[in-house]
Structures are given as structure tokens and as C-alpha cells.
Design goal:
By secondary structure, the chain is of the alpha+beta class. The protein contains one helix and 15 strands, in the order αβββββββββββββββ. The strands form three sheets. The chain has a seven-stranded antiparallel sheet, with no helix packed on it. The chain has a five-stranded mixed barrel with strand order 1-2-4-6-5. Strand 7 and strand 8 form a beta hairpin. This is Phage baseplate assembly protein V. InterPro entries: Gp5/Vgr_OB, GpV/Gp45, Vgr_OB-fold_dom_sf. Pfam families: Phage_base_V.
């Protein structure tokens, strides 16, 4: 009698047991997809021609995927990620192969640490050593490329190459450095004029 009752109960519960097993499988899949939707990774390869990269996260590496740009409409920006740059993987659908993922670069790593530490500084640095800074506390902008620099704030602007350049401010235009020429002719403070009067006399150094 007991065996008969057990058999009847199993038969009655069989559809529910099967459905519970299906739900457990679905829940496990949802958990897996949720874990895969956002991953921290590092760029390991970049294809500039196709605008795609590969990202390693944990023991896995994505296929070639797109990276996110700061602007991609009527205003567009091109700034490919670098190998070794940290990024966040956003995996639409949470699939295992990462084919639907998008890399969002810009996370500092030991290879590329933060470019600054000031709360008021916006800075861009480039591989060749060029830098572009703007400090919104001092209202000061500076662009440096080797010996060439451009600096300006609310008081004026200065363009220099080495020790030579010009400064423009409210009081006028100022030459800075060793000399000034026009079409190869010295017109700086040390130049002299000939032919002012008959003979070989020359003017004094400009005061």
C-alpha cells in the first residue's frame, strides 16, 4: 500500500519536479550571464584598421570587439586604446564568448598609472612626451611638445621655442629671447641702420 501511495505521489509531482529542474537551470544561466555582463580587463591587442581590440579578463580573452569612444556622432573622436590599458567590459546578453561585449578603456594600470594627482587639473599625455594641461583653479593652459610650448591664462598668452618667443598681454606684444629678424634681416634691439646721412654713419642702438 505504501509503495502504491509513493508511486501515485511521484506521478502527481513529476511535472512539477521537471519544472523545478528547468527553473534551477534557468536561474543558474541567469546568474552566469549576470556575472559576465561586467568584467574588468586589460587590452592585449588592437586592430586600428577595424577599430577593434582584444581584452583579457581573468583566464579568458575576448574575440575582436569594439571599444567605446567619447563621441561618435556628428562630433567624433579617434583615440584607440593602448595594449596594457585597463578597461571595463560591458557584455550585452552576458554570453560566454564575449562577442557582444564592448570595451570601455581608461582605467589606470601599473603600465599606465594616473597622469596627475591635482583635483583641478585636466591633463593629456602622449607617448612622445607631449602634454596638454589646463588648471581651472589658476585658469592656466599649457601645451608642451619638446622645446615648443604654448602657455596662456587670463592675463596673456606666451609662445616659446627654447628661450625664444613672444608674449601678448594687455600692455602689448613682447619679444622674448635673443633677437628678432624680418625676412632674414635683424630688426632687434642690436640692429643698426645705414644710409641715414651721407657717409658711413649709423644710428645708435634703439633705446
Amino acid at each position: 500500500m505504501r509503495d502504491l501511495i509513493d508511486a501515485l505521489i511521484r506521478e502527481a509531482l513529476a511535472p512539477y519536479i521537471d519544472r523545478i529542474a528547468e527553473l534551477e537551470t534557468e536561474i543558474d544561466d541567469l546568474h552566469r550571464r549576470a556575472r559576465n555582463q561586467g568584467r574588468r580587463g586589460v587590452v592585449v591587442a588592437v586592430d586600428h584598421g577595424s577599430g577593434r581590440c582584444k581584452v583579457k579578463h581573468g583566464g579568458n580573452t575576448t574575440p575582436w570587439i569594439r571599444w567605446a569612444c567619447r563621441a561618435a556622432g556628428e562630433v567624433r573622436e579617434w583615440r584607440p586604446p593602448s595594449v596594457g590599458e585597463g578597461c571595463e567590459l560591458i557584455n550585452h546578453g552576458g554570453g560566454d564568448d564575449g562577442a557582444q561585449a564592448i570595451a570601455v578603456p581608461g582605467i589606470p594600470t601599473s603600465v599606465y598609472p594616473p597622469a596627475g594627482s591635482s583635483a583641478t587639473l585636466h591633463r593629456l599625455t602622449y607617448k612622445d612626451g607631449a602634454t596638454e594641461d589646463y588648471d581651472f583653479a589658476s585658469h592656466a593652459y599649457a601645451w608642451t611638445n619638446g622645446q615648443t610650448t604654448i602657455k596662456h591664462d587670463r592675463n596673456g598668452i606666451e609662445l616659446m621655442h627654447g628661450s625664444n618667443g613672444i608674449r601678448i598681454d594687455a600692455s602689448g606684444v613682447h619679444n622674448l629671447g635673443a633677437g628678432v629678424d624680418h625676412d632674414g634681416t635683424d630688426i632687434g634691439k642690436t640692429h643698426k641702420h645705414g644710409g641715414i646721412i651721407a657717409g658711413n654713419s649709423k644710428t645708435d642702438v634703439p633705446s
